[in-house]
Design goal:
Elements: H1 3-8, E1 10-17, E2 24-29, E3 38-43, E4 53-60, E5 76-82, E6 92-96, E7 104-109, E8 117-123, H2 132-149
Antiparallel strand pairs: 1-2, 1-8, 2-3, 3-4, 4-5, 6-7, 7-8
Length: 150
């Protein structure tokens, strides 16, 4: 898959742990009005379904808050986060939201295993298992370049 095409679909958001909580994170960097301002990142204990999930990510837009997914599912955003066996650099991946014919890929990255912050890398329209390796290769290179330039 073409690197420029993947780059054109990529958005990045950083979420930082809210004081006094263990699983509630607040948007701290990246474009606003796309994902909810506050997101919960926690272990997944639900039914396995067709993919084995380790974590879950969920959030709900406030009434006056707006974003890409505001009109879906009563303002709720939720995805199970599956491990990426070929890319242990990442916490995992999820998708928003095939039930509504939206196929946006999320890849979670954290330098501290999501203890104080994590990045959500959103790829519009690329939530297809066939694209996962190409997107991970792009993202690995993107993150490594970002770390080198810091």
């Amino acid at each position: 898959m073409n690197t420029e095409f993947i780059r054109s679909k990529h958005l990045c958001f950083t979420y930082t742990l809210k004081e006094g909580t263990r699983t509630s994170f607040k948007h701290s960097e990246g474009l606003k009005n796309i994902l909810p301002e506050t997101i919960s990142f926690s272990n997944y204990y639900g039914k396995e379904g067709r993919r084995k999930a380790k974590f879950q990510l969920s959030g709900k837009y406030k009434l006056l808050e707006h974003g890409f997914y505001y009109a879906m599912n009563d303002r709720k955003v939720h995805t199970k986060i599956m491990e990426i066996n070929d890319n242990p650099m990442f916490i995992g991946w999820g998708e928003i939201d095939e039930r509504y014919k939206v196929y946006d890929l999320l890849i979670i990255f954290s330098m501290d295993n999501c203890k104080s912050s994590f990045e959500i890398h959103l790829f519009k329209g690329l939530a297809n298992i066939e694209y996962l390796n190409d997107v991970c290769s792009f993202l690995q290179s993107h993150i490594n370049n970002k770390i080198k330039s810091s």
